[in-house]
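User: Sequence recovery, please. Input:
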């Protein structure tokens, strides 16, 4: 399973997302994590970026709402306690279990 972390160098939340994805990759050897910098509107459109950071599982953003706009912007994830700049480990595990 390929997981891509799409981020912008100045995004403060990509490091948290990367730490969580790295932890999952140690649990599951079938996961390959890569990081991609997205820094232009054209690249955001090409990658179907729904804010930064974004996580794509086999090319699909499982956290994107159907009407989510594509573009360069900060992204907030709904978590049980409110909002955060990255999904929780539990949310990531649930997404990967369904993939």
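Assistant: Recovered sequence (99 residues):
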């Amino acid at each position: 399973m390929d997981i891509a972390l799409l981020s912008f160098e100045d995004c403060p939340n990509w490091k948290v997302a990367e730490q969580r994805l790295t932890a999952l990759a140690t649990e599951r050897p079938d996961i390959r994590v890569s990081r991609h910098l997205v820094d232009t509107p054209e690249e955001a459109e090409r990658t179907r970026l729904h804010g930064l950071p974004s996580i794509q599982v086999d090319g699909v953003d499982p956290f994107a709402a159907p009407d989510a706009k594509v573009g360069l912007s900060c992204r907030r994830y709904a978590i049980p306690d409110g909002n955060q700049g990255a999904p929780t480990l539990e949310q990531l595990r649930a997404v990967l279990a369904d993939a």
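The two ends are 8 Å apart (CA to CA).
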